[in-house]
Prior knowledge:
CATH superfamily: TolB, C-terminal domain
Helix content: under 10%
Low-confidence stretches: 1-57
CATH architecture: 6 Propeller
Number of strands: 29
Strand content: 35-45%
Number of helices: 4
Largest sheet: 6 strands, mixed
CATH topology: Neuraminidase
Number of domains: 1
Structural class: mainly beta
CATH class: Mainly Beta
Radius of gyration: 21 Å
Amino acid sequence: MSSNHSNHFWLRPKTSDGNGLKSHSPGANHKVSFSDTSSTEKDGRRNSARPSSSNKSSQPPSPTISNSRQQWASSSQKFQRINQRSEALWQQDVISPSASQPRPFLIYHDSFLSLLGPSPTLQLLINDTRAPYFHEAGVFHPPTNTLFVTSNQLEDPSPDAVTTRHKTIVVTKIEFFSPTDFTRDKVRCPERNFMANGGTNYKDGIILCAQGSLREPSGLIYMEAKRPHKTTTLLNNYHSRPFNSPNDVVVHSDGSIWFTDPIYGYEQGFRPKPQLPQFVYRFDPSTGDIRVVADGFGRPNGLCFSPGEDVMYITDTDLIHGDGSKDTRRAATIYAYSVFWENENPYLTNRRVFAYADTGVPDGVKCDVFGNVYSGCGDGINVWNSGGMLIGKIQIEGGCANFCFGRNGELWAFAEHKLFRIKLGDDTRGALLGV
């Protein structure tokens, strides 16, 4: 995207007519318009807490583990305990943490048992050998009991796909009638291929990260959850400079939208040369304010808030580059930031290493209502407590880039060609939805 403006302008949201987003012509000046909001008094105070309008409560205590430990004693075929002391001395006594699918749950600390509940399960729902339809996003929409998932890149032979190097990404919609009874369909709303990646719940629908193409701008798109899935462009530039290829997104309880913007699209050949560093942004749709909130990443990827929204977790997947090459000396790290407020505006501070993935990279990241941190890694879903201790893993063969919580301890894990359903304890719920 090019721009002739020397000043700051916004993109006016363009809505679809039911077939998808309207295209922007190359070189067009993009503007955004937003609804007016009432002004608020600013007293200049600096707080570590959110403004008084917060409706977030402190995180609930974790369930006790005594009953779970006793019930698990008769279900050892489902899990494997990891002796971390022995693992630390692997040169003398090699103990591999890997296990076959019949025992997918690895216990690094007994606190993981309380999250698993008495009868955890890992169930393969779909195995589609045709294409990697289950890759990213993962947005569960409770009102319609629907799961939305974005695919990995698929071949697109159509003539107009030259701007995406003849690649496409599709959005799959899975409507559940019971845990194992569902319908599956492709979302057919977009009239253009916006190469969707991460997503999150927003108002009555979802937000998708549009990575863009060599011609189309990248940014954030709102899609209605119900047919015909009309779409609206929320944002596609940072003060007239094009984003790289937004990757993942989360919404704060104050309505602001936070997202990461690595250069994977450029490395994979469907985005122009970057004009911005690889930042993490905060966008306030009510005012139009777009700001950088974090930098210094190799390739920022997933992000989420703690239950009280006083901590933000951001993953850096610099170990894997867009061309598929790997450098194990680079980051495969989850960073934690403290969220502070000044003059009613948030900022991130106190960056620290929260965890480093021992297998692959930590891609998508989520918190449960107890403050534990889950991330899709090279061996499945890894789980740390709020202090950064690895307490357990849910092994998935081939790894898991992303996942999302459903209701009452339910998770869906995306393993490219495969969609898994995981059932943990009923009280183990995602902090984002809390259902």
